[in-house]
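Notes to self, Glycerol uptake facilitator (Major Intrinsic Protein Family):
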Amino acid sequence: MSVLARRAGAELVGTAFLVIAIVGSGIMASRLSPDDVGLQLLQNSVATGAALVALIVALQPVSASFNPVVTLVERALGMIDTRTSAALIGAQFLGGLVGALAANLMFGLDAVTFSTRERAGAGLWLGEVIATIGLLLVIFGTVRSGRTDRVAFAVGGYITAAYWFTSSTSFANPAVTIARTITDTFAGISPSSAPAFILAQLAGGAAGYALVRFLYPALAASTAAAAVAADRKVLS
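result:
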């Protein structure tokens, strides 16, 4: 099997399990704590952060972005080529949809029910911009400082916190955003709200990329070398 196929497979599986964690823990939280939204968010955020740590640790030797914005920044930094980035992004979107379907079915819901939960407004969109910038700084700052083995814990911790300090509860991921439109549960977002969220995430991605290049001017060379090393690791 080719390296690209293995990478795409890892992104599909990882994104699917991430969405299962987000949607499934949201459903469970709503059922266990129906009258306490704050407790629901706590349960949802802890489960999501913990799942992220586990998934990144497990899949990082192959591919563990699970996020089209992260993959686009990797392409902009020269870590991967256009063909690879397109394959990984496609796998992320597909994996997200599979994850949402699986979570719905696990809890006895219809496989697809479009969310009726409106999430709109300048404050929420700004929250998505900030959440995405922060995510990129955490990921690429950790890599640039030579602590790639700690990315999983940095990302898991950041997302858990960002659920609470951003107005939008930190989607920060277009593939996850699309997936969450097909579940009318605690974690859902209405299809009409999703485009603005994705635009905000892309804007945050552009700003985060610029900030990463400013703070870590030697990042492109070092991360490209790390990507080559990762390729060799996958092949072994």
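- Residues 228-236 have pLDDT under 50 and may be disordered.
- Residues 3-32 form the longest helix (30 residues).
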